[in-house]
Structure formats: structure tokens, C-alpha cells
């Protein structure tokens, strides 16, 4: 089965939805080893993840026109990795945060380099939404 960015983007949107759902329930994310100081912060992050989930699933339906949304999501994934990896390794948020950050880094790289290749456009075109 060949790799398709649209399918990958769709499933990473589903992944975001799953993370959002986990973060809504403090006993669940605590059981997984994630320590967030107060549920309000977890709920705020869950809301952000729910929104990005919808945006990714929406974009996956027509990457040729909506690829810029996914490209910008790669930058968010890098930011998440920059925050989560050190917090998971050296902070008190839990080691699982570092693993999630590494996953975000991998997804961000796949988005940033897979989209231009599959769509046949430049990074600049995706960054400035000059696709489709």
C-alpha cells in the first residue's frame, strides 16, 4: 500500500482527537503517566487539539487546496516538540510527554517534507498558501 499524505493527515487528525479526549479526563491522563498541574490547562490543550483535529481532517479531504493548513500544523508540531521533550525529560510533567513530543516532531517532519513532494509545490508556496 503506497504512502498517501491525505490518509496520513486524516489519521493524524484522528490521533489529535484521541489526545483531546484523553486530556478531558484527569484520571485517564494521570493513569498514562502525564502530570498536568491543573485540569483547566489540560482542558485548554484538549480544546486546541480538538480544533487542530478538525482542521487536519478537513484538509485531508482536499490537500491540493488546503495543504497550507497542514504545512502550518507542522510548525505547531515542532513547537510542541520543543516544549514537550524537555518538559518530559527534565520537568515534572511525565516521561510520556517526551515521547509525545518526539511523535510530534516526526509528524511535523512528515508534513513539512511530504506535502511539497506529493503536491509538487515549493515550501514557500505552502507557507504563503499559494497552492491549488
> How many DSSP H or I helices?
6
Helix content: over 70%
Mean pLDDT: 95
Number of strands: 0
H-E order: HHHHHH
The whole-angstrom Rg is 15 Å
> Structural class of the helices, strands and pairings?
mainly alpha
Question: Roughly what fraction of the amino acids lie in strands?
Answer: under 5%
Biggest pleated-sheet summary:
none
Distance between the termini: 26 Å
Tertiary shape: elongated
Q: Low-confidence segments, ≥5 residues, pLDDT <50?
A: none
Write the topology of this structure.
Blueprint: H1 5-24, H2 26-31, H3 39-60, H4 63-90, H5 95-119, H6 123-127
Helix pairs in contact: 1-3, 3-4, 4-5
Structural commentary:
Helices cover 80% and strands 0% of the residues. The radius of gyration is 15 Å and the shape is elongated. By secondary structure, it is an all-alpha fold. It has helices spanning 5-24, 26-31, 39-60, 63-90, 95-119, 123-127.
Concise overview:
With 132 residues, this protein is mainly alpha-helical. Helix content is 80%, strand content 0%.
Question: What are the key terms here?
Answer:
132 residues; mainly alpha; 80% helix
Amino acid at each position: 500500500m503506497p504512502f498517501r499524505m491525505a490518509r496520513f493527515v486524516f489519521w493524524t487528525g484522528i490521533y489529535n482527537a484521541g489526545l483531546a479526549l484523553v486530556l478531558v479526563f484527569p484520571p485517564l491522563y494521570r493513569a498514562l503517566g502525564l502530570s498536568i498541574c491543573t485540569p483547566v490547562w489540560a482542558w485548554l490543550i484538549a480544546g486546541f487539539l480538538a480544533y487542530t483535529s478538525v482542521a487536519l481532517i478537513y484538509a485531508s479531504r482536499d490537500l491540493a487546496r488546503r495543504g497550507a493548513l497542514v504545512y502550518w500544523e507542522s510548525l505547531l508540531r515542532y513547537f510542541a516538540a520543543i516544549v514537550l521533550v524537555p518538559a518530559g525529560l527534565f520537568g515534572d510533567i511525565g516521561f510520556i510527554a517526551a515521547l509525545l513530543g518526539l511523535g510530534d516532531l516526526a509528524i511535523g517532519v512528515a508534513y513539512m517534507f511530504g506535502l511539497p513532494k506529493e503536491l509538487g509545490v515549493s515550501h514557500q508556496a505552502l507557507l504563503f498558501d499559494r497552492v491549488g
